[in-house]
Description:
Blueprint (H helix, E strand, L loop, with lengths): L5 H21 L2 H18 L4 H24 L1
Amino acid sequence: MLMAHPLVLKNLIEQYETLQILHAEDGSFEARQRLEDIAYTLCVSTGTRDIDAALTTARRQLERADVVSDFALTG
């Protein structure tokens, strides 16, 4: 399975969290649409079907990427 680059995942998570706040504050159609677009992209990027699973998977992949990059730098 292809995996998204850790920086892409990190950016998507940050965008999703920011858009959640924006949508909660103003509830605009545009904010909701952008939130749904990012959720879809996160799902595709992680091979999942719902946003909760996508966020969990993305965060796990980021944790593993940090361990691997730390090992590569020190190992």
